[in-house]
């Protein structure tokens, strides 16, 4: 039994949810998202409440019910309020800037790193070391943040690199000069 899958999803007033076959479309103030449902689960809309119903029993179906509920809830939240992810650039001479739809980063390499942001993701840079990514698709936003972080992952000795704002880097002691 999926505890998350059984929870109902409340739909805000300015969000429209439509179902055409196994294709679900959620449209709101910030944009429009679509997703295709697995054949083992179905969606039931009653007024402003959506519930996910299993068509058959089994562990896989329980997992799919919880997954589908989470995906639909993220779609509703995304088109209503949006999602945001913050990255910090740490290191001497490390900085970032945005020009158009391209994130330009100076990360200690011999060349600047240019990253074209995917459609639906926007970025802003505060104080040249805090990158704020925002968008309506939570999965795409997380994948974009992970890709940007991989350009220079934080290292444990000095803490240089790109890290998530809420991430805590476990520091290591360097070599000690023993005789």
Helix percent band: 10-25%
- Spatial sequence of strands, sheet with the most strands: 11-12-7-13
Number of strands: 13
Query: CATH-wise, what's the superfamily of the largest domain?
Result: Ribosomal protein L6
Predict the CATH topology of the largest domain: Outer Surface Protein A, domain 3
Q: How are helices and strands ordered from N to C?
A: HEEEEEEHEEEEEEHE
The rounded Rg comes to: 21 Å
Q: In the residues, how many domains can be counted?
A: 2
Major sheet characteristics: 4 strands, antiparallel
End-to-end gap: 62 Å
CATH class assignment of the largest domain: Alpha Beta
Tell me what the CATH architecture of the largest domain is: Alpha-Beta Complex
Tally of individual helices = 3
| Shape, per Cα inertia axes | elongated
Short description:
By secondary structure, this protein is an alpha+beta fold. 22% of the residues lie in helices and 37% in strands. The protein has a 4-stranded antiparallel beta sheet, covered by helices on one side.
């Amino acid at each position: 039994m999926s505890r998350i899958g059984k929870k109902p999803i409340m739909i805000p007033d300015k969000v429209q949810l439509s179902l055409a076959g196994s294709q679900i479309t959620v449209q709101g103030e910030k944009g429009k998202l679509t997703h295709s449902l697995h054949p083992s689960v179905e969606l039931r809309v009653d007024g402003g409440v959506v519930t996910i119903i299993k068509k058959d029993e089994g562990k896989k179906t329980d997992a799919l019910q919880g997954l589908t509920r989470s995906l639909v809830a993220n779609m509703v939240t995304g088109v209503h309020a949006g999602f945001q992810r913050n990255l910090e650039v740490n290191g001497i001479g490390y900085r970032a800037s945005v020009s158009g739809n391209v994130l330009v980063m100076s990360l200690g390499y011999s060349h600047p790193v240019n990253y074209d942001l995917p459609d639906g993701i926007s970025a802003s840079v505060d104080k040249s070391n805090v990158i704020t990514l925002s968008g309506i698709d939570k999965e795409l936003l997380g994948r974009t943040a992970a890709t940007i972080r991989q350009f220079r992952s934080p290292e444990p000795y000095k803490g240089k690199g790109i890290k998530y704002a809420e991430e805590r880097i476990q520091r290591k002691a360097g070599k000690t000069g023993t005789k």
